[in-house]
From TrEMBL:
Organism annotation: marine sediment metagenome
Protein name as annotated: AMP-dependent synthetase/ligase domain-containing protein
Length: 121
């Protein structure tokens, strides 16, 4: 898709696909890269702005035989803001975690503890 098809002012931004059907190929790649296997639990931590992406990831997890769990919170308004403790606990328990969110969850206690516990994300 070229930027000429969109009336946008930022040359580096092209709106992505928003249909779950259109996002399924990418969601399946996430399952492949995460090594998601049948019977595993896939935690998808998202916010209200990215629910459609989370639903596509959940569909892909289900398609490979995993159990998807979506946790949705309001956007936190800053990168690296700590997540509520129940979310942190869910990260520790899942086999794989994914974090489609408006603000980055990469440098959070939830992700750090999950990686230390041997989880994939």
């Amino acid at each position: 898709m070229s930027t000429r098809e969109w009336p946008i002012s930022y040359w580096h931004y092209v709106p992505g696909s928003s249909s779950p059907i259109q996002m399924m190929r990418g969601a399946m790649k996430c399952m492949d890269c995460g090594g998601v296997k049948k019977g595993e639990t896939v935690l998808i931590s998202t916010d209200t702005n990215k629910l459609r992406i989370a639903e596509s990831l959940a569909g892909a997890a289900y398609a490979v035989g995993a159990t998807p769990i979506i946790i949705m919170i309001p956007p936190v308004r800053t990168h690296g803001a700590q997540l509520p403790e129940p979310v942190v606990a869910a990260f520790r328990e899942a086999d794989v975690f994914l974090q489609p969110s408006t603000w980055s969850q990469t440098h959070t206690k939830a992700r750090v503890e999950a990686i230390k516990a041997g989880k994939r994300g």
